[in-house]
Specification:
Oligomer: single chain
Shape: globular
Strand content: 15-25%
CATH superfamily of the largest domain: ANL, N-terminal domain
Helix content: 25-40%
Radius of gyration: 23 Å
CATH class of the largest domain: Alpha Beta
Structural class: alpha/beta
Number of domains: 4
Strand order of the largest sheet: 2-1-10-9
Length: 515
């Protein structure tokens, strides 16, 4: 039953910020800046426009585009209608995007023309689901996102009965089993995790956070949400670009962001003449040139931590494990953790088993996956599919995924997804994917392929087949052909044998693959 006295939602947090921080900038993107009061007016208009368009409890809204402050606006607005927002990976192929449109069947799709419009238009044609209201994000007038907002009244929406335990956010996870799954996260989960992350990431109302990483991952989005909750300022750039990042830090005096070493080096080269003032940015140490440009701050408590999308980002943090044996720390105050064997029995400290959680930070489940939900949430615990061990002092040492992944740069690639794609080629009888050590990218993807009798597919054919169907970074860099794929007694692929035969290795966590 709705209890207005005890209600706390993303919308009510925004309402309070309007009172607590009059005139303060909530969002900035390029030349556009919105105070908390501006943001509340835009959110109210969005709610009214979505309501008029027929969006109701449980409906999905899909964001098909790069980073934007519109993602935060839509999340707050959708949650006030008990609907859900899904910002999806704009780097996917048209076939992958079409699959997600069909999986979600969204009531509203907000899409971007610049850079990604061609693939989105192709995905729209491929998708079976043809309903839903399409709004152009980077356009004007009728049929545009801004026109949609302007068409609605400013009437307030604080009277709505909101169930904060219902899903508000859907984030698709990587394809462990050959198909991505959308983790459904509630407002309660979001708001509670914000309170955990704020002290551990040193986020406050003084924080000016630059959202560089993709907002279809929680790595960046969870920090944006925490900054919003704490009354800080979020600054957005469309994608990772050294010039845009340097300009934003200089103009907005950003204090925090998350950058990979390659991007730091690009900014150093760009700013060799000192045209941008970057001292406001607090950063972990990097090169001498980088350290001289920013304010170096040792943030040992932030890294590495352990978690996944299904538990709203981070569930185990070094903040709760100073001086422990396991560098990942201990579980946050909002969850319980166990390490279990195949029969879901606790293993002894020091023994490796599957990491399982329960608590309010656990997702509601995967969208439209009842069988998988029953499997992953059996016994009242969320099963992560990751391996770890409790040290004698109770801290966690993360070992690696039960289903091994390949690490290419900052991207996680799951063999099952690439294998499923290759098996669709008419000349392929069987295949397997392994990771090959790569000095630049950590690992590169190698496909081991067995062709059908008399088939004549080449390495180029296999690679191009993948390029057309999955994101380009997932495609094999090389292909080896053999008569058959080695399999163990239970029928599973013998990845260990393939690694030994073709030089596989350097998997995340230092684990060795079996079948």
């Amino acid at each position: 039953m709705f209890d207005p006295i005890r209600n706390l939602s993303l919308y009510s947090v925004l309402e309070e910020h309007v009172r607590s921080y009059p005139g303060k900038i909530a969002h900035a993107m390029g030349a556009r800046r919105f105070t908390f009061a501006d943001l509340l007016e835009r959110v109210d208009r969005l709610i009214n426009a979505l309501d008029k368009a027929g969006v109701k409890s449980g409906d999905r809204i899909l964001w098909l585009g790069q980073n934007s402050d519109g993602i935060m606006e839509l999340l707050i607005a959708a949650s006030q209608l008990n609907a859900m927002l899904c910002p999806t990976n704009w780097r996917q192929s048209r076939a992958e995007l079409a699959d997600q449109i069909d999986d979600l069947e969204p009531a509203v799709i907000v899409w971007q023309e610049q850079e990604v419009g061609k693939e989105i238009a192709a995905a729209r044609e491929l998708a079976v689901f043809k309903d839903g209201l399409w709004l152009l994000h980077d356009g004007e007038g009728k049929g545009s996102y801004e026109g949609f907002i302007e068409s609605a009244s400013r009437d307030r929406n604080d009277h709505r009965e909101v169930d904060t335990a219902l899903g508000a956010l859907i984030i698709y996870t990587a394809a462990f089993d050959g198909r991505p799954n959308g983790a459904v996260l509630s407002q309660n989960t979001i708001l509670l995790e914000n309170l955990v992350l704020a002290p551990t990431m040193r986020i406050s109302n003084q924080t000016v956070f630059l959202a560089v990483g993709p907002l279809f991952h929680l790595g960046t989005l969870m920090q944006c949400l925490t900054v919003f909750h704490m009354g800080g300022t979020n600054v957005f750039v469309r994608r990772t670009d050294a010039m845009s990042i340097a300009q934003a830090i200089d103009a907005e005096k950003c204090t925090r962001t998350w950058l990979v070493g390659k991007t730091m080096d690009e900014i150093v080269d760009l700013n060799a003449d000192g045209r941008f003032e970057l001292k406001s940015l607090r950063s972990v140490p990097h090169t001498d040139a980088w350290n001289a440009m920013v304010t170096v701050e040792q943030l040992d408590t932030l890294v590495p931590g352990y978690g996944q999308t299904e538990v709203m980002g981070l569930a185990v943090l070094p903040y709760y494990g100073s001086g422990t044996t396991g560098i990942f720390g201990r579980p946050s105050p909002l969850c319980q953790m166990r390490i279990v064997d195949e029969g879901d029995r606790d293993v002894e400290p020091g023994e490796v088993g599957e990491i399982v959680f329960r608590g309010p930070i656990v997702m509601n489940g995967y969208w439209n996956r009842p069988e998988l939900n029953a499997k992953r949430h059996r016994g009242g615990w969320h099963h992560t599919n990751d391996l770890g061990k409790r040290e004698a002092d109770g801290s966690l040492s993360f070992i690696g995924p039960k289903v091994q992944m390949i690490k290419s740069g900052v991207e996680n690639i799951y063999p099952a997804e690439v294998e499923a794609c290759i098996r669709k080629h008419p000349d392929v009888a069987d295949c397997a994917i392994i990771g090959i050590p790569d000095a630049k990218w950590i690992q590169s993807v190698k496909a081991i392929v067995a062709l059908r009798p008399d088939a004549k597919a080449t390495s180029r054919d296999i690679i191009e087949h993948c390029r057309e169907r999955i994101a380009s970074y997932k495609k094999p860099s090389s292909v080896e052909f053999r008569e058959s794929i080695p399999r163990g007694a239970t029928g599973g692929i013998d990845y260990k044998a393939l690694d030994e035969a073709y030089g596989g290795g350097n998997y995340p966590g230092g684990t060795t693959r079996t079948s």
